[in-house]
Design brief:
134 residues; Signal recognition particle alu RNA binding heterodimer, srp9/1; 2 domains; four-stranded mixed sheet; 18% helix; 36% strand; Glyas_Bleomycin-R_OHBP_Dase; PhnB-like
Length: 134
Amino acid sequence: MATLTPYLNFYGKCTEAMNFYKGIFDGELSIQTAGASPAKDQMPAHLHNQVMHAHLKSSTIEIMGSDMAPTQPVEGNTVYLALTCKDEQEIKTLFEKFSQGGKIEQPLQQAFFGWFGSLEDKFGKHWMFNCPNQ
């Protein structure tokens, strides 16, 4: 069975973004630049410092990313990365960490179904936070 892993483009900020997420989720992070790849000689020198592929995997999340895309990326709000938290403390902690340097879209609050909030992080990625009623 196939698995789904978000693959995000960061327009030159992949290393910074993936280290930011690693600081929140912990886990193992690998980063390969174009200049350190077997394809180095097939790419212009100005791309050698760009991240060709990054992969963060922890016990709770898996994210991949790059600075390079086959088409011109355009940020939008059609996709949200949804985090389901185990309790009120976890959702409040994660929401605070992700909001640093970002824009809160919907403040974290308790709704009839549990806690909920959304934001755009400092890298332009949209996140939804949910903690169902226990």
